[in-house]
């Protein structure tokens, strides 16, 4: 593992049952500031791998480190802390809270991470102003900021999800099929906005999709089936 790695996997092995191995990755790394496109068809293990990186699942064997913090054989509370401090996640279905306003949704990560709270305050004076700057920069309007996100269009909700992931400058942004509901032109524009904003914070990006035509937007592309030697025990 290099000190420049925000994500480091080594001999990582995981299966939901003892008779099956879903993830079997010898080596995979993402460096600080790097954008990586991870492609793979449905059923290739993308969701399982993201569950491991996000600390929702615990590796059975091997190592998995986020910014030098090892997540193997640690408590769920510790994995939760690492996720809150270092990861910004854009879910496929956004996972916004529809009854909260745009600003309230965007500031949620800072409620769970003192590190991101402090970074947001240092950059903008308050977490509210940090959320406001991000959402306006992503194309929302002042009138949108106090609206419940359930009233927004899909495209607007997507931008809120990006702002929420970016607030407080997490080290690694994980985007899980976030463009699946968009047409070709809007997909490209969305990724451009995402890259522009995460580069401002120096955040790395792991973008997961089955659509390999999107790979042109990233520093490098990796095929999950090629790095994942799935075996049956």
Number of strands: 9
Q: Kindly state the mean pLDDT as a whole number?
A: 90
What's the story with the biggest beta sheet? 5 strands, parallel
**Helical stretch count?**
8
Terminal CA distance reads 28 Å
| SSE series | EEEHEEHEHHHHEHEEH
Descriptive account of the structure:
The chain is α/β, with parallel strands linked by helices. The protein has eight helices and nine strands. The strands form two sheets. A five-stranded parallel β-sheet has the order 6-7-8-3-9, sandwiched between helices. The longest helix has 18 residues, at about 185-200. The protein is globular, with a radius of gyration of 17 Å. The relative contact order is 0.21.
Features:
single chain; 233 residues; alpha/beta; four-stranded antiparallel sheet; 8 helices; globular
Give a nutshell description of this structure.
This protein is of the alpha/beta class. Helix content is 37%, strand content 22%.
Fold blueprint:
Layout: E1 5-14, E2 23-31, E3 35-39, H1 46-53, E4 61-66, E5 69-70, H2 76-86, E6 87-90, H3 102-112, H4 114-124, H5 127-137, H6 154-166, E7 172-176, H7 184-201, E8 204-209, E9 220-223, H8 224-227
Parallel strand pairs: 3-8, 3-9, 6-7, 7-8
Antiparallel strand pairs: 1-2, 1-4, 4-5
Helix pairs in contact: 3-4, 3-5, 3-6, 4-5
